[in-house]
Amino acid sequence: MIVKQKQVYCRPALCTACRICANACAVVHEGVANPRLGRITIRRNAFERYEFQELCRHCEEAPCVDACMVGCIEKDDETGIVTNDDRCVGCWMCVMVCPYGGIKRDVVKQMAIKCDQCKDIGDPVCVKVCPTGALVYEEREDAPEEPFFTGPTVA
Amino acid sequence: MSETRPLCINAVVNLSDRTVELIETPEEVLRKFVGGRGLNMYYLYKYLKPQSDPLSPDNVLIIGTGLLTGTLAPNTGRHNVTCKSPESGALGDANIGGFFGPEMRFAGIDRLIILGKADKPVYLYLEDGKIEIRDATPYWGLTTNQTEIQLRRDLGSDIEVECIGPAGENLVRFACTRSGVKNAAGRCGTGAVWGSKNLKAVVARGTRGIPIHDPQGMLQKFIELRDYITKSKMIATLGRVGTPLLYDVSNYLGAIRTHNSQQTVFFDTLNAEEVHKYVLKMLSCYGCVVHCRHRNSYGGEGPEYTTEVLLGANIGVADTGQMIDLNNIANDLGLDVSSLGTYIAWAIELFERGYLDEKTAGRFLRFGDYEMSKELIYDIAYRRGFGDMLAEGSLLVDKFGPETADFLIAVKGIPQSDPHDVRYLKAFALGIATSSRGADHLRSRPTLEILDLPAEFTRQIYGGPIDPNPTSYNTKGRVVTYTETILAVVDCVGICKFICHLWNSPHNLNYDHYRELIKLATGLEFSKEELVEVGRRVVDQERLINYQEKGITRKDDTLPARYFDEPMPSARAKGSHIDRQGFDKMLDEYYELHGWDKEGMLPPERVAELNKLRDL
Q1: What CA–CA distances, in Å, run from B449 to A150, B154, B255, B463?
Q2: Nearest to residue B281, comparing CAs of A16, A131, A42?
Q3: What class is the B426-614 domain?
Q4: Taking CB atoms and an 8 Å cutoff, what residues of chain A touch B295?
Q5: What is residue B586's predicted lDDT score, i.e. its pLDDT?
């Protein structure tokens, strides 16, 4: 069953690579500051000149759900949100099958780090903190293709 | 997650013995100096053998993050690089943004205290509390951009790097420390100290988090402050065009340093809107809500207002593209653009006045010659021909003759960083004269008192009545003291000055905001008075280091002769100069508010207090 759902969308042209989204995610979910521990990743390379956002898209047919060998990744039928839990054993199969780089590894805890759209605490924190509007949380019929560059300025 | 970690872990790395020792900062010291620039000063005073040669193994190189660096407080991408300056022989200190500082903290190290000298090129690798001293022979000789690109290829793309380029390796006395495409701990020649220690780079990769005392509170506070800060028109403009917005303002006033401050008005081609034709996108440092950094279409980042004037107007280059090209080259080679542009302009003026001939300079020096300037920049970084001579910076005064010092726009051996000709704004002039690291605007930058603000409002801010007339010498000591103190605190905390109270707006973050943020992030409680005292203590500590290393007193708190003796030639500021009596009056007031004596010396009780803390 396909559920129409609100999603976090990126607008790359507006992203300045400050990593506040990822850091806020880590602070709220882990109690520590470090963008590496956030569920969203901002890949940036100032030399190759890109800022690229990787996050879980809560796929209609999520490959991570099938790949998880302990069955701890589930897609909620009603909300469409894909979540994992602490039964995770750190086999990283989900990390491997995700086509979007949306799942990360916590190498200290040996568990996958995965977005749950902040379902227990309200609207996604990453969207709430973004200073430029590069992240939006909305329901879209068809995601319009976002340009990488809109022009010389931002926001 | 109940991760615990001391608030400040310092790694003492001895490159001569190849040893690493981790030490914690005692809470008593942390409360007195907070972090960043403050603790850097504390440790410099502790570890530096008095009167050491800055380029000898005895110099101490400190890379220290602020107390809030890397946390969710806004604009916390900053840290300080501190040492004894090879350019001035006094204090050397520079603040740098980007991503390296936070990464270093994620790697479990808050401050690196680097001693000794490696026998061959090395780089430091930091990961999760471990520090390795590794061979850097393959990277030696590469420019800063090449170094970072190569290190990323070799070690993975998720590292952050701080490094030096050819200028630092060749001990150019105004080489800078670099990170990313543009971020630089620019001033005071910190890069040469890296080079003298055979230290090419520091690489950090951190998977650990910095524990946040109150995560929910921190999140709410961040959102509140972000909305508050970005509401400001000044911040919005900075985010749109960056610091070049100031060019037009200074130019209109007739206070742009042009042709080595012989002129004060330059072409409109360096206006923000012209510069912006070369900009692809605006970028942020770590955790920044302002995004003032340009990605330019010539393959680099920038230019800042400082660069566009010092590698533009000051050396007579009016073409926007050519100026941006020089900016990219200087950054890549690892040169401090403020010093570089000042020295080149100085050399050109000396050439015009006959102190230098074509034989010594190896070429005909003239203003507005882009090709010549470009060639000279490379020659300085690689120490070739006349460039080798110019790489000695302000020490050349001894070689060229004391009268040539009158044409060098520098204080305490460090050229002026800000492109603004300070003869009109008297408080600004006092600021660069008294700054602890030579002619530098980032220590105080008082510009706000001249705005048309209600008298009662400014009286409350500064703690006393303020004369808003920019050309008056009254009350300017108070203005400088106030801004100097709060900017010292901001550097200790690790927040960017662009969102600091009185930097560009009276509404930016002040002491109360810092207190709240420190409480939320670390759980430590500071009173406002305590933070003010931290700022004052840091300024005093720097004064003491300067006195110990170079005997700096009132005679050194002065301005380039040109600012006293030559009235400004053009536009609205025409006729302005600094009156020596007026200047002395400002200096008296400034010393008095600092509690220093007439000669600008610290009271013995303060010296005793700082010595006691040092010996803890």
Answers
A1: 39, 51, 18, 13
A2: A16
A3: mainly alpha
A4: 49
A5: 96
